[in-house]
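Bumping my old thread because nobody answered last time. Still need a sequence for this structure:
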C-alpha cells in the first residue's frame, strides 16, 4: 500500500528532525522500513514491538535519572 509507505516516510522524516544525530533522509528510510516491518509482523509483532519499546524507554529513563539499584520498601 503506497499511501501507508508515504505516511511512514513522512513521519520518520519529522521524527528525525527532532532526533540528534539523525538526518532527514535517514528518518525517511527508517519510517519506510518501520511501516514495512509492521505490515509483515502482524498484530502479535506490533504488540511485541510496543512492549520492547516501553521496556527500553523505562530502562533508559531509570539509567538517566541516577536512581540507585536498591529498592525502597
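Sorry it took so long. Here it is:
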Amino acid at each position: 500500500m503506497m499511501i501507508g509507505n508515504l505516511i511512514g516516510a513522512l513521519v520518520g522524516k519529522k521524527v528525525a528532525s527532532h532526533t540528534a544525530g539523525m538526518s532527514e533522509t535517514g528518518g525517511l528510510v527508517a519510517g519506510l522500513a518501520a511501516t514495512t516491518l509492521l505490515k509483515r509482523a502482524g498484530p502479535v509483532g506490533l504488540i511485541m514491538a510496543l512492549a520492547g519499546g516501553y521496556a527500553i524507554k523505562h530502562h533508559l529513563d531509570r539509567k538517566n535519572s541516577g536512581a540507585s539499584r536498591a529498592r525502597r520498601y
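The chain has one domain: 2-65. Let me know if any region looks off to you.
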